[in-house]
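hey so i finally got around to running the thing on that chain from the lab meeting. sorry it took forever, my laptop kept dying and i had to restart like 3 times. anyway pasting the input first so we r on the same page abt which one it is
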Amino acid sequence: MAAMLNALRSRDNEALLEAAQQGTFDDFVVAIWRTYTRPDQLSRARGFFYVAGLAAYGSEDFREFVESIGDLTVMLSSLAEREGLDIKEARDVATVTVAAIRGLLLQEVLTPGTCSEDAVALILRMREG
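ok and heres what got predicted. didnt touch it at all, straight out
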């Protein structure tokens, strides 16, 4: 399951990266949210959290999964730098943004329909200060 998720995430990240090159940090965050909250993607999101839970108990058995878990953070950090943040601040903003998205996605997996793009808009407003 972890290998399948890695392959699917890699494919998604390539498509998202193309969007990132054309847009802003905020556009990219919204694209991430829309990609992973489509109804046909929720089973994958469940799989992600299942494998993440297993990796928490034995990360050495899920090395590739664990190593790739920061891919979106790297892409967001790069966008934040492009928009004028220094390297450390860009990395911190990207890390917190991805963590918030994952938290909201977990909430959506557990209670479908409870999160909206308004929650993502709130994440973006918090970034502004």
